Request: fold
Amino acid sequence: MASLSGTDQLHLLICQCPALQTLLWRPTYGRGFPHAEFCALYIESKWPDLDSITFKAAGINIPEESHFRLLQVAKQPFRVLDYHLSGLGPRTLELLMDQHFATMQSIDLCYLGNAGKWAIKVLTSFPRLERFSAETIFASHILEGEPWVCHGLKELTVFIDMDVVERGQFRNQLSAKEIQQCRGIYRQLAALRELRVLDMLSKFDTIWGSMGSALKVPLPFCLDAGLELMAGSVKLKKFKLWPGREEVNERELAWILEHWKQLRRLDGGWCCTAEGGFFLSLAGEQKKLLNKHGINITEDTSDDRAVEARLRWNE
Reply:
C-alpha cells in the first residue's frame, strides 16, 4: 500500500469503510496528507462512528478551521486525538474541553505552541484520560492549578520545568522552598496509581548554544525532593528522566529496586560534561544489579537525535 498516494489511500481504502470507528494512519513520508479532503468527508458524515484518530507521521498539520469543524460536527465525542495538534487555537481548545472532556482517553499536544496551561486544563478536566503527551509543563502551573482528575492515566510524556533560576553552569542543590515545590509535583504524580510510563526526557528541548540561565531545570530524581512519595506507583514499567546537574546516587537506585518491582526500563540523558560533550557513565556493578532485576538501561534518541544516556552515581 506504500505505493499509493495519500489521496488514493483515502478514497480507495478508508472511504470504503463507512462503519469505521478507529483510524490509525501512517502516511508515507513525502507523499503528503490530504487533510482538506479528509476533513470534508468527515464533516459530510462519511464515518459517523469514527471517534478515534491517530496519524503517525511528521508534518501532518491540520488547519485551525478544520480542527474546529471536526470537533463541532462530531456525531459523538472523541476518545482519541493523536496527531500534530499544532493548528489548535483558543476557540477549538475550548470546544474540545466543552464537548469531548468526558470521553477523551488519549491526546497529544506536543506540537501545540505554549501548551502548558492547556495541558493543565486537560489533566484537570479529562477523567478518562489514559495517555497524554505535551512538550513542557511549568511547575508553577501544576502547583497553582486544580488537582488532576485523570487517575486512570497510564502513560504521561512531558518535560516538567521547575521554572527556577539557574545558578551557574552546574546546579548542585535546590533551596528549601524549591524542594517543597518539587515535593508538590511528586505528590501530584503519586496520585496516578495506574501509571505505566512516565517519560520526562523525550520532550525535553533547550538551546545548546547557552550553558547559563537558558537551560531548564528538571524535576530532580531525588528522594529528598519527593521521589519517595511515588512508592505507591507500583505499576510503573518505564521511567525516562533528564537528571540535569543533579546526581542519581545509590540511595535512589536501592529505592527503585525496592518499590518499583515492575520497572523494566530506565533511561537517562540530555546531560553534558563541562566541555559540552555527551557521555555514558554507569558503573559496571550498578548496571549488573539493574539487569539482574530485569531493568534495562537504554540509550535515548529523542527526536531522532542520537544522544547517549547518562546516569551518574555517587560512590
